[in-house]
Amino acid sequence: MSIKRILAVATFALASAVTSSTFAHAKLQSSDPAAGSAIASAPKQVRLKFNEALEPAFSKIALAAADNKEIPVTAVAVDKEDHSVMTAQLPALPTGAYRIQWSAMTHDSHKMKGEVPFTVK
């Protein structure tokens, strides 16, 4: 293999590594309640932890029941101490299946959304 070819391969590999880390998007790291969990008592709060800081004005949490009916949540906020954590207060929930629906924007303007299903036994 020629030195030019080795340099070309090395340059491409380095550029690929830098590019993939530069364009990595924020991800939900954990949730409380945990995704897919079946819990004995209804949670009073939702806590979502991301791998990047969030923009509070563009980050939301909603809650839906199994019949897709929206259940009001209150005090949705990005934590003042840890900007990668978003919380919301929940009303008293009866037994049933629920989906935490979230949307968020990171400081670098990447938008993301997802759902966290859980069941209250």
Describe the structure.
There is one protein chain. The protein is an alpha+beta fold and 121 residues long. It has one domain: Immunoglobulin-like. The chain is 17% helix and 43% strand. The chain has a five-stranded mixed beta sheet, with no helix packed on it. β4 (60-65) and β5 (70-71) form a beta hairpin. The protein starts with a helix and ends with a strand.
Keywords:
five-stranded mixed β-sheet; single chain; Immunoglobulin-like; 1 helix; four-stranded antiparallel β-sheet; alpha+beta; 121 residues
What is this structure, in a nutshell?
With 121 residues, the protein is of the alpha+beta class. It has one helix at residues 3-22, and strands at residues 28-32, 37-39, 45-50, 60-65, 70-71, 74-78, 85-89, 96-105, 111-120.
Question: What is the mean predicted local confidence, pLDDT?
Answer: 87
What Rg, in angstroms, do the CA atoms define? 20 Å
Order of helices and strands: HEEEEEEEEE
Kindly name the structural category: alpha+beta
SSE blueprint and pairings:
Elements: H1 3-22, E1 28-32, E2 37-39, E3 45-50, E4 60-65, E5 70-71, E6 74-78, E7 85-89, E8 96-105, E9 111-120
Parallel strand pairs: 2-9
Antiparallel strand pairs: 1-3, 3-7, 4-5, 4-8, 6-7, 8-9
